Amino acid sequence: MTEKGLHIEVYSDVVCPWCYIGKRRLERALTEFGGAARIAWRPFQLNPTMPKDGMDRTAYLEAKFGSLDSFRQLEEHVLAAGASERIAFAFEKIARAPNTFLAHRLIWLAEREGCQDAVVDSLFRGYFEEGADIGSIPTLVRLAARAGLNEEIVERYLQSDEDTAEVKAEEAAGHKLGIRGVPYFIVNGTYAISGAQPSGRFVETLKQIERVLAEKDRTAESAR
What we know:
By secondary structure, the protein is an alpha+beta fold. 57% of the residues lie in helices and 12% in strands. The radius of gyration is 18 Å and the shape is globular.
């Protein structure tokens, strides 16, 4: 293990079911991996042109997939994958397809406050298991509070434009890296893992990266 351990940046969107599944698989992999790892969540909007107030989810799905039947076929695959990770997807509870930019600003704030992972988990659970409208400020305040953030601070923050430019810049940086789909994992700023890989594959990849980093450390040490 290198002295600094692993730093994993995760580009994701909170309306992406595979990002929720990927989070659970990564957590399981890190438990098995046993090494030190810091995780940071980065913004990626799957629907950046979504109206600010979102839209009816049925209308959105019909526009995107052509028909609900086409979506249902994909849904079955997601439900099965979610069940294996103990995620109780409840798509029938979701009434609106939200604009997720406010949620990404909340995640940015949560990183500064030291509870980013808990907030991300609360958002995923709220949207996919409880049908919460995560484009709504009152809903975001509630979900943030149960993850440990102060309600007044969160509401004041989301009502402002604070960090808007920074969040947009960070999302743009992801696009410049060539990221076109999520989840997308970047380890120590160099090594990329695309998609919600099975936990065993995560473990294998992380061990390979750890060996490469350890070898680099040994080479640097011997050169001193």
